Amino acid sequence: MILDPCVGHGIFVEKLIESGIARKQIVAYDINSDFKSEIQKLGVKFKVQDTLLTLFPDSYNEFDFILGNPPYLNKASTYVRKNKVKLRSLYGKINAHETYSMFIVNSIWRLKEGGKLGFITSDSFLTLSTHTKLRKFILNNCLINQILLAPKNLFDNQDVSTSPVIIMLTKCTGKSNKNLRQNNEMKIIPRVRREAEYKNPSKIHKIIQKKYHLLPFNIFFTDIEEEIIDLFEQSPRLEEYVKGFIGMHTHNNLKYIAAVEGTDLAQIFKNRNQKIQEEENKHRIITKKDLNTETWKSYLKRGGADQYYRPIMEALEWGNNSIPIYDIPKNVPFEEEGIVVSGVSSRLAARYMPKGCYWDSNKAIGFIIKTDSISIEYTLGLLNSSLYNYLAKGIINNTNSIQLTGIHALPFILPDNETIEKVEKYVKIILRNKRKDQNYDYKKEQKQIDNIIFDFYSKTFHFTKDLKKKLDDRYSVYRNDQSKIGD
Ligand SMILES: C[S@@+](CC[C@H](N)C(=O)[O-])C[C@H]1O[C@@H](n2cnc3c(N)ncnc32)[C@H](O)[C@@H]1O
């Protein structure tokens, strides 16, 4: 018995019939009754139903094969909003974000033990930390046969801009099958450029499923070096040495946050203010002198790709009337010297955070160094290096946002004194020059830092020349190709 749980016009059903499958073996569902006559004409069984919500006791363990192209509707869609409560009660423990991820779960339930699933979906569930539970569910209930990253532009002509993956699974549940699952050999095929390459891709990684248990958040990596897996597996986490904290809320940024005169932001605010009539809707701008008084605190609330240093652009009103309004989390070491990392940025971007700063809860994350063994300068050099850009943006999260948990999960090895001194030397040069000129071009120094960090980690993990080339070409500030980091 074969099911397409969201059949649409029935492209898969047609192909099944073409390849000689008997029509009586094929079942199709769709929420939209418009497809009824079209699919019934193909001579297969068709039911109009909401596949996600229609789950009877006998819907479980029913099919030998399930294949499809599930709909991609996110949290903000009318469908998910309308059915939120029901969806959450069914899928909430695993994932109730997008329809395609719920379709994966739903179809695994519908499969018989040993049954096979083949879906083409968005590839975002492979790496996003919001899908960690879904990945765990798959690892604990399936053999992953194959993951193939399909061409990026595959659905462009339908105005759909997701980057797709084709995933093939075999249902294999239960504690007694744990060894079978862990030792299963998966075929992992990095992004192909054309559909014609599906049958004969130039690269196939054969990876034991156990490896998917090793990376933070059980990331389903598709193009990663063995030595990088070893690095994650064998190293302590950055969090043990460098700890970040989610910041505060003002509840009214316009009212309580001012730009500091002379910064780019002050200029932007000035221009905006000119277009605004009402005084209370205008942004405030304070002088540098004001910032040094007790009535203002330095405030960090912007992401972006700037590394090492950026002048303080914003200030938080600090008065008896404003402080009680703020949500300031307890146990966060505001005002300590440390590092600020952009929460939204095309690359991993760490900057010096002077004493006395507060920070927001989203686009800027404050970090404090927990050990005397490393300095702020060393940590800046490390986090801004091509290796750490690869670990953070290429592996842990390849979107524009970087979460605190993701940064904490980076591997870290304590450097020897020589490495520390060498990195610090170059970071100090960058800091000195960037303080004078924010646009200082630090490519030369960064190249040195990248080499020092690479060589130091290579000593333990035996990195290859190919990895170095990948870091230089795709994750460094001096890379030749101008595409976004991680592309
Ligand atoms: C991406 S299309 C599939 C296209 C299909 N493979 C074809 O050949 O046309 C997704 C289909 O899922 C259907 N759908 C959306 N939500 C559904 C749900 N909750 N239950 C069943 N079908 C659903 C849509 O009506 C649509 O036909």
The biggest beta sheet, please? 9 strands, mixed
How many DSSP E strands?
18
Low-confidence stretches: 481-487
The portion of residues forming beta strands comes to 15-25%
C-alpha Rg (nearest Å): 26 Å
The CATH architecture of the largest domain would be Alpha-Beta Complex
Distance between the termini: 40 Å
Number of domains: 2
Instruction: Give me the CATH fold name of the largest domain.
Output: Adenine-n6-DNA-methyltransferase TaqI, Chain A, domain 2
- The overall pLDDT, averaged over residues, is 94
Query: Structural class of the helices, strands and pairings?
Result: alpha/beta
CATH C-level label of the largest domain: Alpha Beta
Which strand order spans the largest sheet, edge to edge or round the barrel? 3-2-1-4-5-7-6-8-9
Helix content: 25-40%
Helix segment tally: 17
What are the bound molecules?
A: S-adenosylmethionine
What quaternary form is this? single chain
Q: Could you give a short description of this structure?
A:
By secondary structure, the protein is of the alpha/beta class.
Can you describe what's shown?
The structure is a single chain. With 487 residues, the chain is an alpha/beta fold. The protein has two domains: 50-223, Vaccinia Virus protein VP39 (Rossmann fold, 3-Layer(aba) Sandwich), CATH 3.40.50; 242-475, Adenine-n6-DNA-methyltransferase TaqI, Chain A, domain 2 (Alpha-Beta Complex), CATH 3.90.220. Helices cover 32% and strands 19% of the residues. It has 17 helices and 18 strands. A nine-stranded mixed sheet has the order 3-2-1-4-5-7-6-8-9, sandwiched between helices. It has a five-stranded mixed sheet with strand order 12-11-14-13-17. Strand 11 (257-260), helix 10 and strand 12 (284-286) form a beta-alpha-beta unit. Helix 13 (386-396) crosses helix 17 and helix 15 (417-436) runs antiparallel to helix 16 (443-461). The structure holds S-adenosylmethionine. The site of S-adenosylmethionine has 17 residues, from helix 1 and strand 2.
